[in-house]
Amino acid sequence: MTLETEIEDGLASYNFAYLDEQTKRMIRRAILKGIAIPGYQVPFASREMPMPYGWGTGGVQVTASIIGPDDTLKVIDQGADDTTNAVSIRAFFAKVADVETTTRTGEATIIQTRHRIPEEKLTEGQILVYQVPIPEPLRFLEPRETETRKMHALAEYGLMHVKLYEDIARNGHIATTYAYPVKVEGRYVMDPSPTPKFDNPKMHMSDALQLFGAGREKRIYAVPPHTNVVSLDFEDYPFEIQTFEEPCALCGAHGVYLDEVILDDRGGRMFVCSDTDFCEERRAEGHRGHLSGEAMEAAE
Amino acid sequence: MATAHIVEGGFADPVFASQSVFRAVMDAMARPGSVLPIDAGISPPAPLNAAAAAVALTLADGDTPVWLEAEMAKNEAVAGWLAFHTGAPLAQMPSDAVFAIASNPAHLPPLTGFALGTQEYPDRSTTVILQMASLSDGPVLRLSGPGIRTTNSIAPRPLPGHFEMQWQAINDLYPRGLDLVLAAPDAIACLPRTTRIGNGEA
After folding, report:
1. Residues of B in contact with A38 (CB under 8 A)
2. Contacts of A228 in chain B (CB under 8 A)
3. Contact assignment for B22 to A225 by CB distance below 8 Å
4. CATH, residue B12
């Protein structure tokens, strides 16, 4: 860790947590303003990171600016701890910040996530860092930044309601299933990042601090703990989350977000927890779904 | 020796000290009214207190003009120390400041005189660091808003004159406004612009 040991090792080394201190200060200032103005996208001078845009450069810069040697980091990609993006970002911070990493939600102090909120309720003191591709919820409705900025300035969000209304007119229901827009503390409409709308209610009055980093689009925003986060809807078409008919095929959990896994080319499929840590912990506690190893053996 | 005063007393280990101070400021900003200890082991020249100085060293640099309240601006040791350790230029006007530091909040100009951001860019606003003698034995302020489950309270002193009225004016500007860091010598608490102060029932 000290300069001498680095020189003795003969290794070129980066500053702690990769980013230089001036960059961290700039990002830290943006994070503080983001927290002070919940849901407002703070512009920041996003740096090139040793990974391409789209791989979580925004989340990585936020994590690098807040992480300290006492933190324990968990990284998930679509709920899974074991996919390429999660594994490589976890390894990155184990290397450049020498921090403990974990796959257990309850043990982590910082959880960097791509597109899911863990099933286990987050607690005071935990920080959830989202990787965000397109932070502007109005971008696909209005491509000009000058205009969307004016719309946020005036809290003019009618266009978003028109979009949801058109969903209903075309499909009979609100067809938006992910990146479902929310209104934060009654003021800013915010993109919760492409999480399934199943996770939207978990953002409301969360005990954990939520930070959002968009590297390519150069925006940071935040939702403090205990903050109102309301999914947009209509009185006669209230917001609803996805429901699943079957429980998880491996751990038997109900009321969690499931991934569909194709098993063969004859229409065979199974639904399993998208949150791999949640599923593993349930199985360790003895819960079994109908396609778990033991259940299959018993059936034979 | 004036020079020694200016050069000494900063972070012994800037990388890790600023990380831990930042986490305290971030936690305090995310949970308004929570008092977080600051122990950065620094010794700034008086009247700058250790917690306010630690926050300045953590967040200020050449990109962030710092405004000093008159008493401190006249103090060459304070201005020199901050310049040496942060590289931040001094802001001549409160409205030019990214950070403002006041050792005597009673002499603070009106809060609305600081940078309040614009409707389009409310983040372009001053973070005001007010040095406090205490965060627990002043008049009790009841707090509510984002980051607070139901209500929280804090009792800082000394506050700027007509503070609750001034703060109400800041609340009314939302999303424009400014954010406060209340810095007792060994601890901080924050009041972001979203925090409402009311001694009546929320």
Report:
1. 146, 194
2. 146
3. no
4. 3.40.50.11310
Q: Based on the structure, what is the number of domains in chain B?
A: 1
Superfamily covering domain A21-147+175-231: Bacterial phosphonate metabolism protein PhnH (3.40.50.11310)
Chain A interface residues (partner B, CB cutoff 8 A): 15-17, 21-22, 24-26, 28-38, 40, 42-43, 65-69, 149-150, 152-154, 185, 187-188, 205, 209, 222-228
Could you say which residues from 135 to 174 on chain B have a Cβ atom under 8 Å away from some Cβ of chain A? 146-149, 174
Residue to mutate among B21, B26, B27, B193, with most A CBs inside 10 A, is B26
- Written in H, E and C, the secondary structure of chain A is CCHHHHHHHCCCCCECCECCHHHHHHHHHHHHHHHHCCCCCEECCCCCCCCCCCCCHHHHHHHHHHCCCCCEEEEEECCECCCHHHHHHHHHHHHHCCCEECCCHHHCCEEEEECCCCCCCCCCCCEEEEECCCCCCCCCCCCCHHHHHHHHHCCCCHHHHHHHHHHHHHHCCCCCCECCCEEECCCEEECCCCCEHHHHHHHCCCCCEEEEEECCCCEEEEECCCCCEEECCCCCCCCCCCCCCCCCCCCCCCCCCEEEEECCCCCCEEEEECCHHHHHHHHHCCCCCCCCHHHHHHHC
Task: Write out chain A's pLDDT in tens, 300 residues.
Answer: 444 444 455 445 679 999 999 999 999 999 999 999 999 999 999 999 999 999 999 999 999 999 999 999 999 999 999 999 999 999 999 999 999 999 999 999 999 999 999 999 999 999 999 999 999 999 999 999 999 999 999 999 999 999 999 999 999 999 999 999 999 999 999 999 999 999 999 999 999 999 999 999 999 999 999 999 999 999 999 999 999 999 999 999 999 999 999 999 999 999 999 999 999 999 999 999 999 887 777 777
Nearest to B15 among A15, A209, A223 (CB): A15
Domain-wise residue ranges, chain A: 21-147+175-231, 258-299
Question: pTM of the entire structure?
Answer: 0.95
Contacts of B175 in chain A (CB under 8 A): 37, 40, 187-188
Q: Give me the interface pTM, i.e. the ipTM.
A: 0.97
Active-site residue (options: A59, A79, A213, A279): A279
